[in-house]
Design brief:
Elements lengths: L7 E3 L14 E5 L9 H10 L3 E5 L6 H10 L7 E7 L4 H6 L6 E6 L9 H8 L8 E2 L5 H12 L2
Parallel strand pairs: 2-3, 2-4, 4-5, 5-6
Antiparallel strand pairs: 1-3
Helix pairs in contact: 1-5
Length: 154
């Protein structure tokens, strides 16, 4: 998994109504170490029966792969993107720059930050005009999934 590979798809239609045959939410993080921090989003989408895919692509290390993911998201049937990022948190904005789909940024705490996730929150929330990114609270992957469900009308 990661830059250039196919995203991992998960479809758990245990509850809720199916919105499509394949994933409708894309969840993206910049590092494999962030996967477990997004567990709240996986659990919430599973609970609601909303199919999603997960991938790892770094805005700083593999920017072309991030752009390709965002540009091709709609064609893969995705309707909302959730991006988890810490520190400089460029991933949500980089994704939003290459798609017209709604992007939800999840600021993640980092042991490397003296601001305990506030730096990531500000980086996600302070986007230039024309590059909208919705921001949820620090480490609030579950809320990102709940917002995605509302956007989808699920």
């Amino acid at each position: 998994m990661g830059s250039g590979s196919e995203p991992t798809s998960r479809s758990k239609p245990r509850t809720g109504r199916r919105l499509a045959d394949g994933p409708v939410v894309g969840i993206l993080v910049g590092s494999e170490s962030d996967r477990e921090r997004m567990q709240g989003a996986f659990d919430e989408l599973d609970k609601r029966g909303i199919a999603y895919e997960f991938d790892v692509r770094s805005a700083h290390r593999t920017p072309d792969a991030v752009a390709e993911y965002a540009r091709t998201a709609r064609g893969r049937g995705l309707r909302v993107l959730i991006c988890g990022a810490g520190l400089a948190a460029a991933l949500p904005g980089a994704v939003a720059a290459h798609t017209d789909l709604p992007v939800i940024g999840v600021p993640l705490r980092s042991s490397l930050s003296v601001l305990d996730g506030l730096d990531a929150l500000l980086a996600i929330a302070q986007m230039p005009p024309g590059v909208p990114v919705a921001a949820v609270g620090v480490d609030s992957a579950k809320n990102a999934a709940a917002l995605a469900a509302r956007i989808l009308g699920a």
